[in-house]
Write a structure and sequence with these properties.
- There is one protein chain.
- The protein has 444 residues and is of the alpha/beta class.
- It has a domain of 207 residues: Type I PLP-dependent aspartate aminotransferase-like (Major domain) (Aspartate Aminotransferase, domain 2, 3-Layer(aba) Sandwich), CATH 3.40.640.
- The chain has 14 helices and ten strands.
- It has a six-stranded mixed sheet with strand order 2-1-3-4-5-6, sandwiched between helices.
- Helix 8 links the parallel strand 3 and strand 4.
- Helix 3 runs antiparallel to helix 12, helix 4 crosses helix 6 and helix 12 crosses helix 14.
- The structure holds pyridoxal-5'-phosphate.
Length: 444
């Protein structure tokens, strides 16, 4: 493909993308294919000779699209949102063109792990300063980290990858992690000879969007010399609205904080941003200086240069130029429109909540704070499981479940930018219709 063809095909692709997004509602939100469907549709080997670009493009609808779950359909209410906007798509294209290897930023899962590794390094140094005879592996076996039972699975994985014990602490009736239980756990573990060193708190848990109590947890962590990492992957975007900022109270105690602009801030996947209180702690854990990456910068001093080299902040060396799409989106939407986007989606969730509350057969299972509603039919887990199975089978809308206090719960999350009030009402009508049929069967 030469530049002339690229100009032509590029314009066609923009049209295809715009048509796709503007007419996405007409596609079933959830694919009607079996895993492995693709195997019959594609050859077993790459073609020996080049194929015309148009043939490749034609196959997108024939081969690829039938297997796609349309995350940007207004009928997609599963998981959490994933960002999407036209300026962000354009910036992503430019990012590909520039194609530089930016040494910065990471996913939420990686942020949790990076914070844990930095905390581990710090804890080892602290223990060795009073017990110089202990080796690093000996110290690792004594280290203990904490998170809530509602934390994302990536926190548990960070413990596995970091080779340290990760304990899950039960939450209160609001699914919030509280200070008293953490304190009790720390006391018991210290008495058993363990070294508490890390807490991953969550603002906006994946299952039910609950908030851990930073005002209680923070001072305990500071007192115990424990690293507090705050995972706000989804909820973090809402803090651009002043009315949601009280949810951040206690953040001053945190050592690191992360949220995913790619979830709820109109930025396309992937884009996750992490803050650390003391850069030196992260760099202390990750810094290596291979010869080929040493280059003097006459203008800036050595020390700031090293601290700013973001390759010392993360696991991969190279990174895409993600900040470009943030810059495009922030400028073309402006704070006001981004706030309006968050507020609209929260309002839609509240609307859905009131529909559920008005129906005596259903119950709300967790406080609705942002764009997620957890609900269920009053009745057995089996009943709710069957309801979700039928929703999935019908393919009109897409939801996923969670488990709260041993109960099977349905999550309804406002995800797509194109979701409007009528989609929410239609979804509720659909859910209640399926529930009605189900309950009739149970009576008969
Ligand atoms: C989505 C989510 C994650 C995982 O985010 P990635 O960027 O995909 O790693 C972690 N924590 C919470 C609370 C989430 O909602």
């Amino acid at each position: 493909m030469d530049a002339e063809e690229f100009r032509r095909k590029g314009k066609e692709m923009i049209d295809y993308v715009a048509d796709y997004l503007e007419n996405i509602e007409q596609r079933p939100v959830y694919p009607d294919v079996e895993p492995g469907y693709l195997r019959q549709l594609i050859p077993t080997e790459a073609p020996e000779d080049p194929e015309p670009y148009d043939d490749v493009l034609k196959d997108v609808e024939r081969v690829i699209m039938p297997g796609v779950t349309h995350w940007h359909s207004p009928n997609f209410f599963a998981y959490f949102p994933t960002g999407n906007s036209y300026p962000s798509l354009l910036a992503d294209m430019l990012c590909g063109a520039i194609g530089c290897i930016g040494f910065s930023w990471s996913t939420a899962s990686e942020a949790t792990l990076v914070a844990l590794l930095a905390a581990r390094c710090k804890a080892v140094k602290r223990v060795q300063s009073t017990n110089p005879e202990l080796s690093e592996p000996e110290i690792y076996s004594k280290l203990v980290a904490y998170t809530s039972e509602q934390a994302h699975s990536s926190v548990e994985r960070a413990g596995l990858i970091g080779g340290i014990m990760m304990k899950k602490i039960p939450t209160d009736y609001n699914y919030s992690l509280r200070g008293a239980l953490l304190k009790k756990m720390i006391k018991e573990d210290k008495a058993a000879g363990l070294v508490p060193f890390y807490l991953c708190a969550t603002l906006g848990t994946t299952s039910c969007c609950s908030f851990d109590n930073l005002m209680e947890l923070g001072p305990i962590c500071n007192e115990e010399n424990m690293w507090m990492h705050v995972d706000a992957a989804y909820a973090g975007s809402s803090f651009i609205c002043p009315e949601f900022r009280p949810l951040l109270n206690g953040i001053e105690f945190a050592d690191s904080f992360n949220f995913n602009p790619h979830k709820w801030l109109l930025i396309n996947f992937d884009c996750s941003s992490m803050w650390v209180k003391k850069r030196a702690d992260i760099i202390g854990a990750f810094k290596v200086e291979p010869f080929y990456l040493k280059h003097d910068n006459q203008e800036s001093g050595e020390s700031t240069l090293n601290l700013n080299k973001l390759l010392h902040w993360q696991i991969p060396l190279g990174r895409r130029f993600r900040s470009l799409k943030m810059w495009f989106v922030f400028r073309t939407f402006g704070i006001k429109q981004m706030q309006a986007h968050i507020r609209k989606q929260v309002a839609l969730a509240k609307e859905f909540e009131s529909l559920v509350r008005a129906d005596k057969r259903f119950e709300i299972c967790a406080e609705v704070v942002l764009g997620l509603v957890c609900f269920r039919i009053k009745g057995s887990n089996e009943l709710n499981q069957t309801l979700l199975k039928r929703i999935t089978k019908n393919r009109q809308i897409h939801l996923v479940p969670c488990q709260l206090s041993g109960r099977f719960v349905l999550r309804f999350c406002i995800c797509a930018r194109s979701t409007e009030s009528h989609h929410v009402h239609k979804a509720w009508q659909h859910i209640t219709q399926l529930a009605f049929e189900l309950l009739q069967e149970h009576i008969n």
